[in-house]
Amino acid sequence: MHATLPLLTATDFPPIRRRVLETLQVNLGYKCNQSCLHCHVAASPQRTEMMDAEHAALVQEVLRSRGISTLDLTGGAPELSPHFRDLVRGARALGVRVIDRCNLTILSEPGQEDTAAFLAAQGVEVTASLPCYSPANVDRQRGDGVFERSIAGLRQLNALGYGQDGSSLVLNLVYNPQGASLPPPQGPLEADYKRELLQHFGIRFNHLFAITNMPVQRFGSTLVSKGTFASYMQLLRGAYQAENLDTVMCRNMLSVDWQGDLYDCDFNQMLGLHARLGAVARPHLRDLLAHDPEGEDIRIADHCYGCTAGQGSSCGGALEPATPQEAVLEFAPAGVL
């Protein structure tokens, strides 16, 4: 795999600083039941990195001591962690909002048959990957049969109340482009998703998040192999919107890897760019018990343009309304299934 950090280090991206820490995004490990081309953590069934019980307990201690309001669980497939359920229970007992970044197919894996029911019982917010409402497009990006299993997972969640009118169980979907382009405008795309998924599959959900592919790990390496890394960076830089700087996710979030090390975001985690926390060279979860990260400089590199291009991008989708500069990507038009 091609290393992309040397191509990103030199940057003129504006300096930014942290605000109050509200969200702890914890990567429980890189093991996954899928191997997606766009995956910025290069997760796969062959990965073995997984958070241990000591660090999972430390996550709960930090949530309590810092008064953090949101725990965002990711991976890999976070549900594969042997500590996933204890961590969810502990956080919910503290009154913390918990987000599970679910790939949907995990819900039909052996041993995971009751996962959806567990998530519903705990009131966990599910943010699920579904890169298109077209079976062909999803299977091309994620593998044969993934779309069918994803629909089965969504139906299972809907049956438990997720995404339904009047229900407190929140179900969000995530769209990633299938190539080196910016996502289309989030609002119209969400309307298309809701119409097509309801009409053809009876699926309901709350919101769609359109997220820009970042030029790191597997996707970045693919860009290098195809000779399109420079042109993709030119696209991101050319679509830069200064107003997005105010709402980038790193201002109020810290990313935690499976070993407990701290980063400003999941992308910096994959690049090995540790967060800054006073004089601590390699800050760790335990350092948050004594140090407040508010006001610290955020580590930046050229990939940060991915979060500020066009409508902006974050783990919660677009930051701003779509602009005329945005590129439109090949995804199935309405009605094409």
Describe the structure in your own words.
This protein has 337 residues and is α/β, with parallel strands linked by helices. It has a single domain, classed as TIM Barrel, CATH 3.20.20. The protein has an 8-stranded mixed sheet. The chain is globular, with a radius of gyration of 19 Å. The C terminus is likely disordered.
Shape: globular
- Report the CATH topology name: TIM Barrel
Task: Strand order, main sheet: write it out.
Answer: 6-5-4-3-2-1-7-8
Give the distance, in angstroms, between the N- and C-terminal Cα atoms: 34 Å
- Please outline the major beta sheet: 8 strands, mixed
The CATH architecture would be Alpha-Beta Barrel
Number of E-type strands? 8
Gyration radius over CA: 19 Å
CATH H level, superfamily name: Aldolase class I
Helicity level = 25-40%
What is the typical, i.e. mean, pLDDT? 89
Q: Structural class, judged by helices and strands?
A: alpha/beta
Order of helices and strands: HEHEHEHEHHEHEHHEEHH
Instruction: State which percent range the strand residues make up.
Output: 5-15%
**Weakly predicted, low-confidence segments:** 321-337
Number of domains: 1
CATH secondary-structure class: Alpha Beta
Give me the number of helical elements: 11
